[in-house]
Design goal:
CATH superfamily: Aldolase class I
Helix content: 25-40%
Distance between the termini: 9 Å
Low-confidence stretches: none
Structural class: alpha/beta
Radius of gyration: 16 Å
Number of strands: 10
Shape: globular
Mean pLDDT: 95
CATH class: Alpha Beta
Strand order of the largest sheet: 1-2-3-4-5-6-7-8
Order of helices and strands: EHEHEHEHEHEHEHEEEH
Number of helices: 8
CATH topology: TIM Barrel
Largest sheet: 8 strands, parallel, barrel
Strand content: 15-25%
CATH architecture: Alpha-Beta Barrel
């Protein structure tokens, strides 16, 4: 049997040092926030440079957008994935040039809607407000993940201290963290990134 390996996505990176630290920690994907309303916002030009650095470190790059215009979506071909995290429709996300990771606050209804959208490659189930570090009750999510036709990333309030229990309960394809590995709002902490990835690997080992 192939050992379980939960993918780790670290979002909201803004510096070269962040990307290198994520790679050294053992992350699989790194996200760059292109929404100006976030304290983690980077320009498209900067995100492209960070994505190129990520590729050199064997990391997948994810461009995170919120209600982006079609022309802006079309300009994201330099990234491995596009994360749509606003009020986009199924038709709107179909305009993304790369596989779509659909982020949304959890509800059974939203989960069903996006699991059925053919333009969505994978789901990212978040807490009430994306990027706020708010957790949510995982109990109703567990059976949905088990039966999901699509890969599911779990987000929302995860930290090095809580991610192991969340993996054991939900058993997602991947986990996503941003504020949970920061020293101050918007500033990543390499030690917490390493601790987060280590906790994920420990949870995988315990569930093997």
């Amino acid at each position: 049997m192939t050992p379980r390996r939960t993918r780790v996505k670290i979002c909201g990176l803004s510096t070269d040092a962040d990307v290198v630290a994520a790679a050294e920690a053992g992350a699989d994907l790194v996200g760059f926030v292109l929404w100006q309303g976030s304290p983690r916002h980077v320009t498209l030009e900067r995100a492209r440079a960070l994505a190129a650095l990520a590729a050199r470190h064997s990391l997948e790059s994810v461009a995170l957008v919120v209600d982006a215009e079609p022309a802006f979506l079309a300009a994201l071909g330099d990234f491995d994935r596009v994360q749509c995290h606003g009020h986009e429709s199924c038709n709107a996300v179909s305009r993304a040039p790369k596989p779509v990771l659909r982020g949304f606050p959890f509800s059974p209804e939203a989960f069903a809607t996006w699991a059925a959208c053919p333009s969505v490659d994978a789901l990212l189930v978040d807490g009430p407000r994306g990027g706020s570090g708010e957790a949510f009750d995982h109990a109703p999510l567990v059976p949905l993940v088990a039966a999901s036709p699509k890969k599911v990333f779990l987000a929302g309030g995860l930290t090095p201290e809580t991610v192991g229990a969340a993996i054991a309960r939900v058993r997602p394809y991947g986990v996503d963290v941003s504020s949970g590995v920061e020293r101050t709002r918007g500033v990543k902490d390499p030690e917490r990134m390493a601790a987060f990835c280590a906790a994920v690997r420990m949870a995988d080992a315990l569930s093997a």
